[in-house]
Structures are given as structure tokens and as C-alpha cells.
Design goal:
single chain; 883 residues; alpha/beta; Dna Ligase, domain 1; D-amino Acid Aminotransferase, Chain A, domain 1; Glucose Oxidase, domain 1; eight-stranded mixed sheet; eight-stranded parallel β-barrel; elongated; binds phosphoenolpyruvate; binds magnesium ion; pyruvate, phosphate dikinase activity; PEP_util_C
Length: 883
């Protein structure tokens, strides 16, 4: 197998199509070469090689060294210099590049090939000794840290110590001789600390770096990132070995990053940042605050540092041309890295840029309007899960803003929370349900857990492309970066602001859309669902086949869901309607009654409440279908638990506390999830189901009158496994329906159906469909019972399963297609055999998960039902599944 792919001089062995094999970076470097763009020559070692490396117990596969050597001498020919040559040494960058971009997660080594000898050649050739020795010391530092595992801080200490001794303030003040002293101290420290000298042999350096990049695929940060973003470990990373170009070659050199459109708003304008006389990672690392690429961007940011447009007009013009070409070529917004070495522009990377949901919508709509992509492609460009970001609140423009600082609007949306200063504290606080804002000088990949736990992220340093900004945008978490006016006193855990000090636990609000930091909490506005969002949704609705309903029982949820485009209610969990203060007492009275008459008396009190609940839901849904499920949970959930609660409730109900306690005891179950719930309850106490049915039909009559739209209630029986269970309950429902129809003189059409949420029900679906007019897949319970994994206890060990690679994703979040999915598929087929027009839907959590929605489309469900905030996600995912 070919393991090494060459690129340079206007041609490449690979292309953008080879993304899986060459990784995103390698494939696009090849593509840019093929387009004739200025790309430093190099080679890409394939992702398969990474997998082979791991299979062999972290050994390079046979033949790899020869293949790399051969390719490297061709790179040398193209660059006009050879690796390891004492006169004209070729220096290399070694970077990772997986199929999916994983910003900052894996390792990079720059300036590789420098040693005591080649550094002199570099000094001679460049005519700049300071530059050569500065590059050498950077390389030692990076290499020792990334490849040899030396502590980064130890180098900083030596550097600071020498600078202090010499009375220098800036790195740029250090002379070539002084760098040599520092280099000597570095080398000595490495030898002392690590017990091996810094390698002088360039080939040894190269293989060390390649091994380190492969190894970084399995470092803790990368593993966490993969888990969060569902990237399989089996993809592996490619390694890109490329001739160095130097952005730190004095003041005619620079390095930068750019987006062809604004990644935060989507505005169609070149957007980017650069640093003069700087190298690679300096821009993204957020250590120096970069300058704006364009003049317009400079003016907007109020910076007095010149733009690239002004300071290097020729290189800028060429770059602008290239960005346009690349965007048209890829037909998508590009994220680019470039370096200018002594006035000459080099392209180091292009890829489809990460963007906020808002930007994604704007870009997709504008590209479709411009005819660059079709409306269907536009729909396909939006990550359904990302819509969540748009459904986030923003700060009410009318609210008073107590501004205590400001930075860059790095990731939109507003968030309020208590200040924490470390990622550990953020994780800890969110565990206990507190909402926090993570405040850091800058973030690094180690902060990923804390960033996830926080409601918002505030950094003191760093630009729009800093780690914090990029990661926060990806997560949809509001972020303000580079708030330079603020200071952190980490020892005292204080945040020093324009308006005095704040401490840990004090509440602040971030406006990730304006970059403002506000004191306290601020009134928020609900999101705007028209504009680009509306356009995409319109296209999505035209493309999809499945309906999207919502799981809702409160009027507020039902209204929200309709505003998000829900086409009915797929699951109204009636048990959620009984937990309110004034209702639970009647519920308790019912449970405590020791005979049917007592129960009926208590139920009579609940009837009007249920009737008005359902009337309101029917009215809000205005003729759209509404599925109401009969009471599902075990009764003891409604009873008090602690002795204090028991005493209190007994007092309220006027019953003996001991009697109540013994009833609680009686109702206790070892396995409530597998206990006396669902239709079992309706079979033991049919009067409960009868009361609910009466409430539903009376409400249907009322709502039909008030709205003028006929209501066709769908009554759903939970937790059925035997057709006989359904027959029993259905008989009660039908009897009550007849009564109400007679009493009211109104004809009502209605459906009686069942949840399919137990394996037996799926297996016996053909028989059950004889009685059931619809099925709704309760994939929460179906997952629980198919795996035999308690849905309430799964989190503790499924996490371990994911870490150990036993499962790729949580089956309670995304459907287990092979197991649970197979049962769903079987039940749909069997159900349709008996009743060809049976209505089929899903109402487990999976109904709002894009991957599961794709599966639902494949098996041909009629609708999915999900929580209100997931409705737009489901509409889009259903469209993508149908396209
Ligand atoms: C289910 O089991 O998937 C379901 C929707 O019901 P619940 O979550 O209420 O048990
Ligand atoms: Mg269930």
C-alpha cells in the first residue's frame, strides 16, 4: 500500500477527494496545489498508516521510512534545499490532520531539522543570526515539549530569567549571542531533566515528531474531543510534513488566518487576523492580540495597528484573489491559514470553516440565492443540532446594561452565571446544578470539560480565532474573548473590572453577540425565528416527508412548540399534569382511598382539572392531532417519602400518619420502572383511565365549539406487551366515549393506539395492531428493556463504555439501530401487515435526535415527536433524511 502522498509545484498525488486517507488538511493542501496556488511542497502520511502504527503496538510499519525518505528528497528538490544538508538545509513543519478538524487537539512541531550545524547555515543564508537562533530555540522548546515530554514552563522560566539578567523586556530584544546562551541552558536542562540529550540528527528529529503526532491521536484531549463530537477513534490522523516558510522573517513577513465570510454573523466579507513577524501558532494561541486583515475590519475594531491591506498591499491583493477562488471552488465558506515570507504569500491550509448556526444559515441562504448551491444543498449545509444556538435567548435591548468590561463578540447568545476561575470549578459547580461563567486569561485544550460545563466563557486575552472563541462557537456557548480591560487575580480569585472587583460566585452576564460583560443578571429576549432561519425551514419543510410533532403537556410548551413549527402533539404525558400543588393532594386522596367509591370520589375532583387542561391543549393545537397518553408512572411517585412529609400530608388529608406510612410502604416497589405502571395501572384501577377518557372527550367537545375546528383525539395506552391488555383498556375507553358522545349529542372521531415500548410488543406487533389504530415507539423504555439497562442508572457506566470504545454513542440519546432499531423495524412491518394504514410515530427522546430521525425515515414512520426546543432540529433533520 502507498503510505506517502507528495504535493508541491502545482501538482499533487492526492486531491480533496482523498479526505479519508489524507485527512482534511492533507487533502486540501493537495487540492490547492492542483489548483496551482502557492503551497510549500510537502508530503502526507496516510491515516491508514496511523492505524497500522497502533495495530503494531506503536511501531512504524515496514517500508514507511524508505517511502518518506524518497518523498522527502523530492520535496527537497522542489524547495531547492535538502533535509539535513549543512549548506542549504530544508526545514520542516510536522502537523497532524484528521478527517474531521480537531482544532488544537493534536500536536505540531515547527522548524524541524535545525541543529547546531544547520542553524549556522540558516543564519548565513538569511543574513539574520538573531532570526536563526530564535527559530532554533523555538524548535528546541516545541520539540522537547511535544516529542520528549519536557515541561513547557521550565523553558519559559529560563527565558524569563535570562531576559531579566540581561535587562530585556521583549523577546525581540534578545541578540543572537544571547539566544545561544539560552539555547545552551535549554539543552542542559533537557539532558538533566530527561536523561537524554536533545537530538541533533534531523532524521531522528523527524521520526520523533511523526511518532508524536500519531501518539497525540490517543492523548486525553483528543479522546475527549472525539467523544464530544462523535468522531470514531478508528479514523486515525494523517501527518503532514511540509517545507517551512517563515512568517517571523522580519517585518516583511507575517502569518495569519482568515475566513472568506464572517464566521460569527455570516456576513459576506473577508474576515481575518494576522501578526507581523510571527510564526504559525502565535495567532491562534491568543498570546499576542492580532491585527485585522482588512482596513474595514481595522476601523470597525477601533485598532490603530495597520491592516494587512495597508501594510502589504500586494500580498493582500493576491490573497484576496485566492480566497475568492477557493470559496467558489469548494462552494462553501473557507477557513484559511497563510504565511508571508519576505513579501511572498504562501497558503498553508484551507477548509470549510466552522461557523455559528446564525452564520451557517446566512451563508447557506446567500449562496443558494446566488445560485452557487441549490436550496436542498443549503438545507444540507446546516447541522441540525446547531439550531439550538439560535433558540437561545439574547439580551433584551431595553434592559439596563451595567457594563463592567468588554471584549470580542466571539460566540453569540447571552448567558448569565456565577464566576468561576478554573475548569475544575466549572465542572464541579455544574454538577450541583449551578450555572457558571468560566473566566480565564485564555483557554487551552485542557479546559474543554470546563467549557462544556459553563453557560458562558470569558477570556482576557485572545482574538476571534483563539482557542476559546473557536471551541465556544462550535459548542454554541456564548463567549466573550480578549476582554483586555479586565484582570484576573488568580491567587485571590478576583476579577478586577472597570467597576471594581468581583469574586468567585458573583453573578455576571455575557453578551456573546456584542462582546459586553455585564454585572448581575439581565432581562433576556426569546429568539427570532424569521429571516434566514425561516427561509431554510421553508425549504426543509418542502423537502421532508415525516411530520414533526412535539412532546408537551403544558400550555406554555405547546405554544412554544407551535411557534417552532410543531404539527401536533405526539405525546402528552398526563402524569406530569398531576404534580402541581393543588392537584397532587387529590391524587393522593385517590391513591389512599381504600375502595373504588373513595377512588371515584377523588377522581371526580381531578376530572374538571384534566378537562380544562385538555381543552387548552386542543385549543392551542387548533385542529392539529393530539395524542394523549393515559397515566403511566407507578402510584408511589405521588406519595410523600420522608417521615416529615408523611406527617404533613397526613395532616392535610386528615388521615392517620401511620396509615399513610403503611400505604407508602405497601406501594413500595423494588423495580418501579418494571413495576405497577403503564396499562397495568389502568387494569388495576380502570376508574383512573375512565376519568381521563371522559376528560379528553368532554374537552374535545368544548374545544371543537370554541375553535370551530373538529378535534380528533388520539388516546394512547402505555407499556402494553399483550394484545389482551390493550383490549381491556380499549373497551373502557370506547364505553366512556360512547357515553360522552351520547350526552353531548356530538359525534367525535378518535383513535385508540398504543406505545410500542417493550420488546414483546414489538415482537407481537401484528396481533396488537388488530386492536391498535396507531403505534408510537417509546424508545426510552424500549432501549431500557431491550438492553436491560436502567435508563435512570445508565449514565454511570455507559460513560465508561464509551471511553473504552465498547459503544460509540449513548443508546438513550441516539437509537441503537442494530438492536432497538431492529425491533422498531420489525414492529412497523408487522403492524402494517395487519393494518396497512396504521399511523406510526416515535415519541422517545430519539424523536429529536438527527441520527435517529434518519433511521425513522428509513423505516417509514409517519411522524417524529420531540420536546419543543428540538422541533426545528427535527424539521431540518427530517428534511436532510429525505433528501
Ligand atoms: C418512552 O418510553 O420512550 C416514552 C416516550 O415514555 P416515557 O419516557 O414517558 O417512559
Ligand atoms: Mg415509556
Amino acid at each position: 500500500t502507498k503510505r506517502v502522498y507528495l504535493f508541491g509545484d502545482g501538482k499533487a498525488e492526492g486531491s480533496a477527494r482523498d479526505r479519508n486517507l489524507l485527512g482534511g488538511k492533507g487533502a486540501n493542501l493537495a487540492e490547492m496545489c492542483n489548483l496551482g496556488l502557492p503551497v510549500p511542497p510537502g508530503l502526507t502520511i496516510t491515516t491508514d498508516t496511523c492505524n497500522a502504527y497502533y495495530e503494531a503496538g506503536r511501531q512504524f510499519p515496514e517500508g514507511l521510512r524508505d517511502e518518506v525518505s524518497a518523498a522527502l528528497s523530492k520535496v527537497g528538490e522542489m524547495a531547492g534545499r535538502q533535509f539535513g544538508d549543512a549548506e542549504h538545509p530544508l526545514l520542516l513543519s510536522v502537523r497532524s490532520g484528521a478527517r474531521a478538524s480537531m482544532p488544537g487537539m493534536m500536536d505540531t512541531v515547527l522548524n524541524l531539522g535545525l541543529n547546531d550545524e544547520t542553524v549556522r547555515a540558516m543564519a548565513r543564508e538569511s543574513g539574520d543570526e538573531g532570526f536563526a537562533y530564535d527559530s532554533y530555540r523555538r524548535f528546541i522548546q516545541m520539540y522537547a515539549n511535544v516529542v520528549m515530554g519536557a515541561d513547557h514552563e521550565a523553558f519559559e522560566e529560563i527565558l524569563e530569567d535570562e531576559k531579566a539578567r540581561l535587562g530585556h523586556e521583549l523577546d525581540t530584544d534578545v541578540s543572537a549571542e544571547e539566544w545561544q546562551t539560552i539555547i545552551a541552558r535549554y539543552k542542559q536542562m533537557i539532558e538533566e531533566e530527561l536523561g537524554t540529550p536533545f537530538p541533533q540528527d534531523p532524521h531522528e528529529q523527524l521520526w520523533g515528531a511523526i511518532g508524536a503526532v500519531f501518539s497525540s491521536w490517543m492523548n486525553a484531549r483528543a479522546i475527549t474531543y472525539r467523544q464530544l463530537h462523535d468522531v470514531p477513534a478508528s479514523w486515525g490522523t494523517a501527518v503532514n510534513v511540509q517545507a517551512m516558510v517563515f512568517g517571523n522573517f522580519g517585518n516583511t513577513s507575517a502569518t495569519g488566518v482568515a475566513f472568506t465570510r464572517n464566521p460569527s454573523t455570516g456576513e459576506n466579507r473577508l474576515y481575518g487576523e494576522f501578526l507581523i513577524n510571527a510564526q504559525g501558532e502565535d495567532v491562534v494561541a491568543g498570546i499576542r492580540t492580532p491585527q485585522s486583515l482588512t482596513e474595514a475590519g481595522r476601523i470597525e475594531s477601533g485598532s490603530d495597528k495597520p491592516s494587512l491591506e495597508k501594510s502589504m498591499p500586494e500580498a493582500f491583493a493576491e490573497f484576496v484573489e485566492i480566497t475568492k477562488r477557493l470559496e467558489n471552488h469548494y462552494r462553501d465558506m473557507q477557513d484559511l491559514e497563510f504565511t508571508i515570507e519576505r513579501g511572498k504569500l504562501w497558503m498553508l491550509q484551507t477548509r470549510n470553516g466552522k461557523r455559528t448556526a446564525r452564520a451557517a444559515l446566512k451563508i447557506a441562504v446567500e449562496m443558494a440565492d446566488a445560485g452557487l448551491i441549490s436550496p436542498q444543498e443549503a438545507v444540507g449545509r446546516i447541522e441540525p443540532g446547531s439550531l439550538d444556538q439560535l433558540l437561545h435567548p439574547t439580551i433584551d435591548p431595553k434592559a439596563e446594561r451595567n457594563i463592567i468590561g468588554s471584549g470580542l463578540p466571539a460566540s453569540p447568545g447571552a448567558a448569565t452565571g456565577e464566576i468561576v476561575f478554573t475548569s475544575e470549578d466549572a465542572v464541579e459547580a455544574s454538577r450541583t446544578g449551578r450555572k457558571v461563567i468560566l473566566v480565564r486569561v485564555e483557554t487551552s485544550p485542557e479546559d474543554i470539560h470546563g467549557m462544556h460545563a459553563a453557560e458562558g466563557i470569558l477570556t482576557i486575552r485572545g482574538g476571534m480565532t483563539s482557542h476559546a472563541a473557536v471551541v465556544a462557537r462550535g459548542m454554541g456557548t456564548p463567549c466573550v474573548s480578549g476582554a483586555g480591560g479586565l484582570r484576573i487575580d488568580s491567587r485571590r480569585k478576583r476579577l478586577l473590572t472597570l467597576a471594581g472587583e468581583l469574586g468567585e460566585g458573583d453573578t455576571i452576564t455575557l453578551d456573546g453577540s456584542s462582546g459586553q460583560v455585564l454585572k448581575g443578571s439581565v432581562a433576556m429576549l426569546q429568539p427570532e425565528l424569521s429571516g434566514d432561519f425561516g427561509r431554510i425551514m421553508e425549504w426543509a419543510d418542502a423537502a421532508r416527508q415525516m411530520k414533526v410533532r412535539t412532546n408537551a403537556e403544558t400550555p406554555a410548551d405547546a405554544r412554544a412548540a407551535r411557534s417552532f413549527g410543531a404539527e401536533g402533539i405526539g405525546l402528552c404525558r398526563t402524569e406530569h399534569m398531576f404534580f402541581e400543588e393543588d392537584r397532587i393532594i387529590s391524587m393522593r386522596e385517590m391513591i389512599l382511598a381504600d375502595n373504588e367509591d373513595g377512588r371515584r370520589a377523588a377522581l371526580a375532583k381531578l376530572l374538571p382539572m384534566q378537562r380544562s387542561d385538555f381543552t387548552e391543549l386542543f385549543e392551542i393545537m387548533n385542529g392539529l392531532p393530539v395524542t394523549i397518553r393515559l397515566l403511566d408512572p407507578p402510584l408511589h411517585e405521588f406519595l410523600p417519602k420522608s417521615p416529615e412529609e408523611i406527617a404533613e400530608v397526613a395532616g392535610l388529608l386528615g388521615v392517620d400518619p401511620d396509615l399513610l406510612a403503611s400505604r407508602v410502604e405497601e406501594l413500595h416497589e423494588f423495580n418501579p420502572m418494571l413495576g405497577h405502571r403503564g396499562c397495568r395501572l389502568a387494569i388495576s384501577y380502570p376508574e383512573i383511565a375512565e376519568m381521563q377518557t371522559r376528560a379528553i372527550f368532554e374537552a374535545a367537545v368544548e374545544a371543537a365549539k370554541s375553535t370551530g375546528a373538529p378535534v380528533e383525539p388520539e388516546i394512547m395506552v402505555p407499556l402494553v406487551s399483550l394484545r389482551e391488555e390493550l383490549d381491556y383498556v380499549k373497551a373502557r375507553i370506547d364505553a366512556v366515549a360512547r357515553q360522552v358522545i351520547e350526552e353531548s349529542g356530538q359525534s367525535i372521531t378518535y383513535l385508540v393506539g398504543t406505545m410500542i415500548e417493550l420488546p414483546r410488543a414489538a415482537i407481537r406487533a401484528a396481533r396488537i395492531a388488530e386492536a391498535a389504530e396507531f403505534f408510537s415507539f417509546g424508545t426510552n423504555d424500549l432501549t431500557q428493556t431491550t438492553f436491560g439497562i436502567s435508563r435512570d442508572d445508565a449514565a454511570s457506566f455507559l460513560q465508561t463504555y464509551r471511553q473504552k470504545g465498547i459503544i460509540d454513542h449513548d443508546p438513550f440519546v441516539s437509537i441503537d439501530v442494530e438492536g432497538v432499531g431492529e425491533l422498531v423495524r420489525m414492529a412497523t412491518e408487522k403492524g402494517r401487515q395487519t393494518r396497512p394504514d396504521i399511523k406510526l410515530g416515535i415519541c422517545g427522546e430519539h424523536g429529536g435526535d438527527p441520527a435517529s430521525i434518519r433511521f425513522c425515515q428509513q423505516v417509514g414512520l409517519d411522524y417524529v415527536s420531540c420536546s419543543p426546543f428540538r422541533v426545528p432540529i427535527a424539521r431540518l433533520a427530517a428534511a436532510q433524511a429525505a433528501i
